[in-house]
Write a structure and sequence with these properties.
Helix content: 25-40%
Number of strands: 7
Mean pLDDT: 85
CATH class: Alpha Beta
Low-confidence stretches: 1-14, 210-215, 217-232
Oligomer: single chain
Radius of gyration: 17 Å
Strand content: 25-35%
Order of helices and strands: HHEHEEHEEHEEHHH
CATH architecture: Roll
Length: about 240
């Protein structure tokens, strides 16, 4: 029987105490023999942690949306970018990763430093359906009430962001294209991502995908069976 879904971090902790949210997660995980992580965007194509196994997964009740403001990783305070977040409603296909028992704590702390430096996400344990059965996995969701959660933007505003937003981890455009490629490589169709890619392509913003794929494969460490750890600076976007 699955454990209860991890409750979101209280508002007073969301931007002030990532360590407390990690403590609460560990309390939820205590006694469980397996620890799983659900990836829906950059955790698919740049997981940056060691995993014993990984599988395609489906989450109900949440969907992937390019609606999270990024002022550092994929943009700046002067020109904020966008990254994907997991928002309530619908369903989302992604990947789940099982941490190795021998180094799971270290990998979890590295993941937390990457995803939760300010505590903006609501970390939850969500049931994830895989071909091997349902597992309970940590997912980084976002509250619609968060200051970082933007409303649906018109296409002209999205195009402006795709043209100009660039942060320490690269551009919003590259982030979108990498996520699109990673999903298609795994047979996942996301209609909104495909629409945004068509929009960007129509306005001449995308480089040839063969070059993009080669560039990505040079910068991401993987093995034939499981994602590998990366020595690069932790970067959530």
């Amino acid at each position: 029987m699955l454990a209860p879904v991890l409750q979101p971090i209280p508002p007073e902790l969301m931007l002030g105490d990532p360590a407390e949210s990690l403590r609460r997660l560990r309390a939820q995980w205590q006694g469980r023999s397996e620890r799983w992580i659900f990836g829906y965007a950059s955790l698919i194509w740049r997981p940056e942690f060691d995993a014993a196994e990984h599988h395609p997964a489906l989450v109900h009740g949440w969907h992937r949306a390019l609606r999270m403001r990024s002022r550092i990783n994929r943009g700046t305070p002067q020109q904020p970018g966008l990254v994907f977040a997991l928002l309530p409603g619908g369903a989302c296909r992604g990947m789940v990763y099982r941490l190795r028992p021998e180094n799971g704590e270290d990998e979890l702390e590295r993941l937390w430093a990457r995803e939760m430096p300010t505590g903006v996400y609501d970390p939850r344990l969500l049931p994830c359906r895989t071909p091997q059965g349902t597992v309970l996995a940590l997912a980084f969701t976002l509250s619609r009430r968060s200051e970082a959660c933007l409303p649906h933007l018109p296409d002209d505003e999205i195009l402006h962001i795709l043209r100009h937003a660039h942060g320490r981890c690269g551009s919003t455009l590259d982030y979108l294209a990498e996520t699109s490629l990673a999903l298609r490589e795994r047979g996942v169709q996301d209609r909104e991502i495909e629409r945004l890619m068509t929009l960007a392509r129509r306005h001449g913003l995308l480089q040839p995908e063969a070059r993009r794929s080669a560039s990505r494969s040079e910068g991401v460490s993987t093995s034939s069976s499981t994602p590998g750890s990366s020595s690069s600076r932790p970067c959530a976007g």
